[in-house]
Amino acid sequence: MSGLAQCLFGRGAVVTGSDLAPNENTLRLERTGIRVFYGHAAENIGDADAVVFSSAIGEENAELRAARGKGLRVLSRAELLAEIAACYEHVIAVAGCHGKTTATAMCAHVLDACAGSCSAHIGGADRAYGNFRECGTKYFVTEACEYKANFLRLRPEVALVLNTDADHLESYGDDAALLAAYRSFVGSAQTAIVCGEDRIARGVHGALTFGLREGCAVRAEDVRSVHGKYAFTLCVRGEPRARVALRVYGKHNVYNALAAAAVAEQFGFPSALAAEGLQRFSGIARRFEKLGSLNGAVLIADYAHHPREIAAALAAAREICTGRLFVVFQPHTYSRTRLLFGGFVSVLSGVEDLVVYKTYAAREYFDAAGSALTLAQSLPNSLYIERMRELEIYLRCSVRSGDLVLILGAGDIYYVARQLLRKKS
User: Fold this and answer.
1) 414 touches 337 (CB < 8 A)
2) How many CB atoms lie within 10 A of CB 328?
3) 395 partner at 20 to 30 Å CA-CA among 147, 194, 361, 421?
4) Helix, strand or coil for residue 11?
């Protein structure tokens, strides 16, 4: 939402907005001159001509009800994104359960290196571009969110699918419906790029594929880890094209990089320029981000909130950890925890020093079956914590130099960790 607000403001629109409390996004918007209200109230809409709402907003919201009552134009975030995307010549939409933000940002850097310009709508803060970058109208890359089938609003030239793991099942009902939505998304585009190792590749004919396995059109060979950061030879249809050295941690980012390189290949750009763009990319906030240190232990935050994402973050952490690995995980929504409960237990059961922090409910009401406490009770190695002060005491008494503390979750645990570090002195 904040990226779209920046886009409209940059085009000369008068933009206001509201949120429950100040955060990095709202403060950044205020610094640019956008007025932000804290708390939702009917009078906040003022003399607006249109009101845009996110999927986190229910129909009972005071501002949304007031807008409908006044007969104003009301758009969902996905509808506004589709209208903005229609202003660009070439639109690349990046979908998938994991890696959308990183792959979108990588695509932006690659297209910038290849074409000299690229506008981008990114779900997190890229170190160079932020979460929205306006740079010409030829190329536009955006995340395509599968929640409530929002990505079906877009009509991209290129549909890029990173993976199709089960998620948001509270919205789809079952995994088959989710996969069908991904196939509809691919069908809405002129061309498709898909991971050749994902199940969707079997049902999408003519797509450009990427991955590590034999048979993928865009492939990584001679993959090597250098202190947790990966380098590989970029091969296209069996031909070695360029050597890529990533500046971000984790083998999972090889897949994200291959996806971005496939976009360059789709548009006919040289692989050497794609490699140059990938090497410019230095990371996204909350994606294996080093926050600081506590008692000499390094604190790293990652947005991982799905079992597969947690597995990837754990693998990256274990590659660079020289002491004990402490993990603090905050479940994101009760429904996801309940529906993927077995996956969470499986991936976290191997962590020796584990804290399960209280659930970030987001848009949901309490559900004991999907609560953080219920998850913790199924993990004998875990400690359940509800308050920042408890977490602070535990970490201060437990960690030491050489240890690594991995903070996992898409909720407010990131801000809890940052506040904890500010108190360390």
Assistant:
1) no
2) 25
3) 361
4) coil
Which one from 26, 101, 209, 359 is the annotated catalytic residue?
101
Residues 6+ apart with CB under 8 A from 27: none
With contact defined as beta carbons under 8 Å apart, do 249 and 319 qualify?
A: yes
pLDDT, tens digit (0-9, with 9 covering 90-100), for 39-67 = 999 999 999 999 999 988 999 999 999 99
* Main-chain phi, psi angles of 381, to 5 degrees: -85, 0
Residue 412 and residue 403: Cα distance in Å, rounded?
23
| Amino acid letter for position 42 | A
143 is catalytic: yes
CB-based contact 234:275 (threshold 8 Å): yes
Which amino acid is located at 46 in the chain? Answer: G
Structure tokens at 412: 């407010």
Domains and CATH numbers, the chain: 2-75 (3.40.50.720), 88-280 (3.40.1190.10), 289-422 (3.90.190.20)
Report the alpha-carbon angle 281-166-252, nearest 5. 25
The answer to whether the predicted template modeling score (pTM) of the entire model surpasses 0.90 is yes
Of 26, 63, 142, 143, which one is the catalytic site residue?
Answer: 143
Catalytic option among 26, 100, 146, 251: 100
**Is 101 an active-site residue?**
yes
- CA–CA dist 309, 312 (Å, integer): 5
Cβ partners under 8 Å of residue 173, min gap 6 = none
Alpha helices in 242-333 (DSSP H): 252-266, 271-280, 307-320
Q: How far apart are CA 162 and CA 371, in angstroms?
A: 29
Under a CB-based contact definition with an 8 Å cutoff, are residues 62 and 84 in contact? no
Mean pLDDT, all residues of the chain: 96
Contact 351, 314 (CB under 8 A): yes
Which residues pair with residue 94 across a beta bridge?
Answer: 143, 160
Tell me, yes or no, if 104 is annotated catalytic: no
Mean pLDDT confidence for 217-239: 97
Mean pLDDT, range 254-282, rounded to an integer: 98
Residue 314, SS3?
helix
**Which amino acid is residue 145, in one-letter code?**
C
For 168-206, the pLDDT digits (tens) are 888 899 999 999 999 999 999 999 999 999 999 998 999
